[in-house]
Queue: 4 jobs
Job 1
Amino acid sequence: MTDTHVIVESFPVGSVQTVLSALQDPVRLEMVRRLSNAGEPMRCGLLYDTINKSTATHHLKTLREAGITERIVADGHTYARLRTEEVDREIPGLLDAIVGAANRAHDGD
């Protein structure tokens, strides 16, 4: 992502209810888990396996509007970035706890 023409779209971090509502969906939780484990922005297509692109777009929009992720368009590719610092500033420890539980559940499968 070294392109000089980069577009970033993000929203303020929502209330705890808004963030938890966005994370309660298993698809969105898996997207956040993958982003957290990657530790860097990921191409949106790598965040889902079993859903179609339009459904994935809806889920990514929900996460973005809750302030959990941001969309980055660079070099004609769309990436998602987990806004860990921003969410932690507003709701300390939430992402660590939720992603940790999701990782333990995933490893148990």
Note: The chain has a mean pLDDT of 94.
Job 2
Amino acid sequence: MSSLQHNPKASSPVYKQIPTSRYLADLPKGAYYQGDYKLGLNFYSFSHNLNSWINGTTDGAPPIDTMQVIRFAKEAGFDAVDVTAYYIPGYDNSTMPTRPDEEIFGYAAQIKLLCAELGIAISGTGVKNDFADPNEERRLLDIQRTKYWIDVAAEMGAPVMRVFNGAVPKDIHQFGWEAIARERIVPALKECAEYGAGKGVVVGMQNHGDMVCTADQVIRILQWADHPNLGLINDTGFFRSFMQPTGLNYDWYDDIEAVLPYTVNFQVKRKPAGSNTDPFIDLEELFRRIRRSNYRGYIPIETLWVNGDENHPQQLPEPPYEQVKQFLAQLREASEKTKSYS
């Protein structure tokens, strides 16, 4: 049973944000980094096409399999791939794996072998989970599932396991953000981080416009958890005010910068306010902020489409190779242009 206690004041407000400016004021000031970054491809960039393959249906999007995406990434000039676990046959979002262990771990070994043969790194992997769910059984199952895929990550050679914090639960107004974060999310993250430490896999929680939308929420949760094997997947497309549908009129770049000391990996999106909004990310501004930090890890991209987008994968005769390569070229150009401080 949950130990959460009803807070009669929690609904007004459910969460009071500490301004990002307070965190920025405490950021360590280091030398401006002028070197190269390793750029990666998150598999979700081909989600429509990979889903066609994994589900055995075209559904309007030409199928592509995991090994083909790895080969494409190498040919396109990516330094690394983030092999989302969704695209390992046997993965399921709500149950333990649906295929035998030997088949799943065998496939992970094949991924590792192919990447080694091609000379491309594996920057991470990830699962779908909900550590904020009011149902304790659901949370315990997601912890068990995460541990299983940490084992797979270790077999594959993925250094980081990406996890979510969870959707805003139906009882948020009853208990408030902090109580749910402290008593549901933090213990689950700590348990997974401790397990990952024994396997050599860092656990990275991702801000995803859910229970974690702001730099303040990121930092508070990570400080409450206080585990050396737990960090942040810095998702540039999901910083926004809590419980808001988009990040329009929000200062995404300050939040991105404020959490850089906690960042263990990235997901760079084309649209910082959300995939269903208009503004495009200023990649030079992004790299200038990263270069002022001590972050030296991978910087993977994740291209997303919503219905009505031009060149939506379901409207193309082949997977969106050119669109992904174009975003990579923009990222590389911005990285090069920002090497000299200005």
Note: The radius of gyration is 20 Å.
Job 3
Amino acid sequence: MSLDEMKKRVRQHIDLSWNKGRLALAEQLHSPDFLYKSSFMGRPLNSTAYAQMVQDIRSAMPDLEVVIEECIAEGHKVVTWSTLIGTISKPALGYPPSDKVMSISAMAFWTLTPSGDIREICTMFDMESFRAQLGLETRPFAEKALP
């Protein structure tokens, strides 16, 4: 699979799962040993658990849109920088509802198999900015870095 085909596959996965909620189709792009890891999840998720998490977030944020800002591929990896935009209309992942339109930056590192199946997604979200937008307490970087 070429680098451009890998980037296209990742863009397709984001569009199917996060933007359209067509999770059964998105899951067809996963390898049998698929794992999702994230800065806001306590443990890796398999394909079924990933689909449920996306469904739960989309249910809490019905106007959610994920905009891909950058997509880079090398070897068998793809890196995306995305912005999630939407309003939390009901509690999600321990966060309260808000009438504010949220903008959350995310970086994701995707590993694909030689045939193009998605084996792993490792995502880091800017949770401090997210918390600040919700008016929740944030901690300075130096405070977080200290034991």
Note: The chain has a mean pLDDT of 89.
Job 4
Amino acid sequence: MGFFKSYDKVDNAVNRGYAHWGKWIWGSLLAVVLAYGGWLIWASIWGPPTGGVTLIIHSEIDRPILGFSVNGVAGANASAYNKNNPYGKGAGKTTCCGSISGKTAEVIWMLSTTRAQYDAGLRKETRRVVMPLPERKWGENDLHVHFLPGDKVLLGWSDNAWSPYEKGPEKMK
């Protein structure tokens, strides 16, 4: 019977505590739920854009790109740009979905070689550049990464597959 007397003492103490602190406990839980709900509403209406980003590669260099990353989010590869091919320019492959945020972007890419370039003595090289990350607006979930000659990189957000640096269907009219 000692166990049940101890159990009754603990039960009575818990009941007295709940009678005294119950309103505070439920009020605190309600405050936490309301604060979280308020934050969700703020983030969905006025907060910064977040969520998954699709990386789209555009290459205008004469060497293949084995892969690249923007702030650690991996992108696809691209073949060497051929000036004689009118269809060889434009959007390349896409990768989905990673989270890219911040004020700066660290772009790392690996250059490969064509057979002729390899025979001429070129080998794989890794390049890196840190640059400002353009401001992302609501609905812009595609980050276009343009690789240009001279180790230049352009970054641009869009809400569709067309880069802000290219003519899209709506820009051709």
Note: The chain has a mean pLDDT of 86.
